[in-house]
Specification:
Layout: E1 8-12, H1 16-28, E2 32-36, H2 39-46, E3 53-57, E4 59-60, E5 63-64, H3 65-75, E6 80-85, H4 90-99, E7 103-106, H5 111-129
Parallel strand pairs: 1-2, 1-3, 3-6, 6-7
Antiparallel strand pairs: 4-5
Length: 130
C-alpha cells in the first residue's frame, strides 16, 4: 500500500535486475517506484506517472539516455534526474549536466552513493521551494 505523499521514483534501465534491486531498496525508504526497461516504456510511464526523481541509464536498448533527458525535462519539468551508467567518461558527464541532469552515479551501483544522490537532489528541490 502506497501512502499518498510518498515521493515517486522512475527507474529507467534495461537491466531488469538493477530495476528490481533499486526498486526494493527505495521501497524500504518509503518511496513509490516504477520501472521502465527502455525509452519507449519510459515515455508510456511518464504519460501517467509524475516522479520526483528519475534514475536514467545511458545505454538503453532503443537509444541513449542522454538523448532522452530533454524529453523528461519537457514532460516532467520538476523531476530530478540522476544518470546511472557504467560509461562514465568525462565527456558523457559533461553532456549529461549540460542537458540538465541533477546528479551522475557510476555503475556498479552502491547503495550509500545512490542514497546520497537522492538526498542531494531532493534537498536541492526543497531549498528552491522555500
Amino acid at each position: 500500500m502506497h501512502s499518498a505523499d510518498a515521493q515517486k521514483i522512475l527507474i529507467i534501465d534495461d537491466e531488469v535486475d538493477i530495476c528490481f534491486l533499486l526498486s526494493n531498496l527505495l521501497k524500504k525508504k518509503n518511496f513509490q517506484t516504477q520501472s521502465a526497461f527502455d525509452i519507449h516504456q519510459a515515455k508510456m510511464a511518464l504519460a501517467h506517472y509524475t516522479p520526483s526523481v528519475v534514475f536514467l541509464d545511458n545505454h538503453l536498448t532503443d537509444g541513449l539516455g542522454l538523448n532522452f533527458i530533454p524529453y523528461i525535462k519537457e514532460n516532467c519539468p520538476d523531476a530530478k534526474i540522476i544518470m546511472i551508467t557504467a560509461y562514465d567518461d568525462k565527456e558523457s558527464q559533461e553532456e549529461a549536466f549540460e542537458k540538465g541532469v541533477d546528479d551522475f552515479v557510476s555503475k556498479p551501483l552502491r547503495w550509500d552513493i545512490l542514497n546520497a544522490a537522492i538526498e542531494r537532489v531532493l534537498t536541492k528541490s526543497t531549498l528552491v521551494a522555500e
